[in-house]
Specification:
With 311 residues, the chain is of the alpha/beta class. The protein has two domains: 183 residues, FAD/NAD(P)-binding domain; 121 residues, FAD/NAD(P)-binding domain, CATH 3.50.50. The chain has seven helices and 19 strands. Helix 5 runs parallel beside helix 6. The mean pLDDT is 95. Bound molecules: NADPH dihydro-nicotinamide-adenine-dinucleotide phosphate.
Length: 311
């Protein structure tokens, strides 16, 4: 049996693609993942309050939002498989999509495997994840935990600069911990953070452990020049050290950019292989928002529907 459409990945991009494709009677089959690339449901499963997804004036918990999207996709007839895809073959149609348990053939595929925010895995990180440690200021910055306390941001790229600036709205002071003695961020962002009176840059500094009680209270930082250590009393620690797109299984078949994100062409979600689309963070290192992921998921489903009707 050959499926019409397989969707790989179950974040906002995947479920939006599934809702649109199911309503178009494509009977999509979704591999929602199991372990690889984080939890089924994507990065929102490890977020607390989501306050910027339109339609929820009082905010919604990340896992609840994903449960709702999942239910909506099921309601319209999406078939779900809770398993990781471990191999694909896009060299000939129908395409092959395989997990450890099964092999599926499909005429079309939408890839929504997302990206994972890189972490440092310092001592205490698991304990304070979502209780002071986060990898997304835009998602978590307004949490009462971070109001009027000092906060540390790790990284020296545009994301770190953007997160540091964003957090100055809530924090009493932002410490930017840069592992080297240079910033990678664009000149304009560099100027903004260097001239901001609430931001202090710590050059060649890295956090090595996190401490607190129910919530984060301080971190230990290590100077990378002379290895000396010191304590920093902060109520927040934000990682902005880049993301890793979940594209390992597509390497060699789909065109990826130098950071490993799937290349899509122009104003579409088309990849270099006809019949394969990519939506969400797996092809977007710039916006990385649930709502933009959902938007591209919708685009991918509409493009797949049109293409299947014509081919
Ligand atoms: P980048 O790869 O540009 O920067 C990552 C930063 O994190 C670097 O300073 C790097 O240090 C540091 N880093 C990496 N690993 C570690 C580690 N283990 N410990 C400590 N520090 C570490 O990632 P970004 O997410 O900032 O940006 C990704 C892309 O997205 C870029 O092209 C950026 O321009 C773009 N972007 C654009 C935005 C905009 O235009 N508004 C906003 C955000 C991102 P080092 O320099 O030493 O390697």
């Amino acid at each position: 049996m050959v499926e019409q459409l397989v969707i790989i990945g179950s974040g906002p991009a995947g479920f939006t693609a599934a809702i649109y494709a199911a309503r178009a009677q494509l009977y999509p089959l979704m591999f929602e993942g199991f372990q690889q690339g984080g939890l089924p449901g994507g990065q929102l499963m490890t977020t607390t309050e989501v306050e910027n997804f339109p339609g929820f004036s009082q905010g919604i918990q990340g896992p609840e939002l994903m449960r709702e999207m999942r239910q909506q996709a099921i309601r319209w007839g999406t078939k779900l498989i809770t398993d990781d895809v471990v191999r694909v073959d896009f060299r000939q149609r129908p395409f092959t999509i395989a997990s450890e348990e099964m092999e599926i053939l499909s005429q079309a595929v939408i890839i929504c495997t997302g990206a994972l925010a890189k972490r440092l895995h310092i001592q205490g990180e698991e304990q304070f994840w979502n209780n002071g440690i986060s990898a997304c200021a835009i998602c978590d910055g307004t949490n009462p935990l971070f109001q009027d306390v000092e906060i540390a941001v790790v990284g020296g790229g545009d994301s770190a600069a953007e997160e540091a600036l964003y957090l100055t709205k809530y924090a009493s002071k932002v410490h930017l911990l840069v592992r080297s003695n240079r910033l990678r961020a664009s000149k304009v962002m560099q100027e903004r953070i260097l001239n901001h009176d609430k931001i202090q840059i710590h050059w060649q500094a890295l956090p090595i452990s996190a401490h607190g009680d129910e919530v984060l209270r301080s971190i230990t930082i290590q100077d990378q020049k002379d290895q000396t250590i010191s304590e920093l009393a902060v109520g927040g620690l934000f990682y902005a050290i880049g993301h890793t797109p979940n594209t390992q299984i597509f390497a060699g078949q789909l065109e990826l950019d130098e950071q490993g994100y799937i290349k899509t062409s122009g104003k579409s979600t088309a990849t270099n292989i006809a019949g394969v689309w990519a939506a969400g963070d797996v092809q977007d290192h710039l916006y990385r928002q649930a709502v933009t992921a959902a938007g591209t998921g919708c685009m991918a489903a509409l493009e797949a529907e049109r293409w299947l009707a014509e081919s």
